[in-house]
Amino acid sequence: MNAEPFAATVLLPAERGGAAPDRIFDAYLFDLDGTIYLGGDLLPGAKRTIEQLRAAGAKTVFLSNNPTRDPDMYVRKLTGLGIPVDRNEILNTVVTTVLWLKSNHPNAVVFPIAEQPLIDALDEAGIRISDDPAEIEIVIASYDRGFNYRKLQIAFDAIWQHKRAILITTNPDRYCPFPEGKGEPDAAAIVAAIESSTGTKCVANMGKPDRTMIDTVLSALGVDAQNTIMVGDRLETDVRMAVNAGMSSALVLTGDSSLADLESLDAAFWPTFVLDGVGSLVPGGGRNEI
Fold this sequence. Notes:
There is one protein chain. Strand 10 (175-178) and strand 11 (182-185) form a beta hairpin. Helix 3 runs parallel beside helix 4 and helix 5 packs across helix 6. The chain folds into two domains: 14-65 and 208-280, Rossmann fold (3-Layer(aba) Sandwich), CATH 3.40.50; 94-205, Rossmann fold (3-Layer(aba) Sandwich). The protein has helices spanning 46-55, 71-80, 93-104, 116-124, 149-161, 187-198, 211-221, 235-245, 259-263; strands spanning 27-31, 37-38, 41-42, 59-64, 90-92, 109-113, 128-129, 138-141, 166-169, 175-178, 182-185, 204-205, 228-232, 248-252, 273-275. The chain has nine helices and 15 strands. With 290 residues, the chain is α/β, with parallel strands linked by helices. The strands form four sheets. A six-stranded parallel β-sheet has the order 5-4-1-13-14-15, with helices on both faces. It has a five-stranded parallel β-sheet with strand order 7-6-8-9-12, sandwiched between helices.
């Protein structure tokens, strides 16, 4: 599939994150929507870049804060777009939430404000689900397009009235971006409703930029942070996670964050590289092909 001509250029001077990568890293962690694809279409350079990195021996893993899909859904989508992947190359907040609960609260009773992929994963892991506020120990606030007042009331009663439940979230995103400048409220909107009504604070986040996700993927890959690079379109999640982990990062300007956002950012949280697309990741490898 051919795309419109695409020049993968560096947009800032080197001291501001503008130098392009000059080596192949051991592992590349890619955000998905806004980085590899936007909606249902691959972004320019994505397929060619993944092929080049794999041919060079680099490991590629795809990360997502979206808990409305399970890993198999991502496998089907990426493979259908021409980037074949295995299930173990996908890590999203459905996976990290289940792993965190099994490691930290294996016997807890949970109330997921969530869509079916997370609910199914909790069931499969043997984690008990309840909507009885008197027995709920953990409220999971997620990206839930079926969120309603009943769910808010159950969370309120479990946390405020019974004073027994804690609040966690799958991801801290305020909204999910769509093509053509559109979007919809994400998990942070539900967290805010619960926090403001109960006075509690969310105690754990399973997605970027929290260490839960990055520690999980680095352990699975058997690589260290210094030889890994995070590639994504969001300063507040993708780049912040990399900074927190002490790894390199590349901000691509094909999704959420812009150069204007970077100008107002504390220098401590700048990305290592700022590129206009994933085609600049491979040294000397800007390409016009998808």
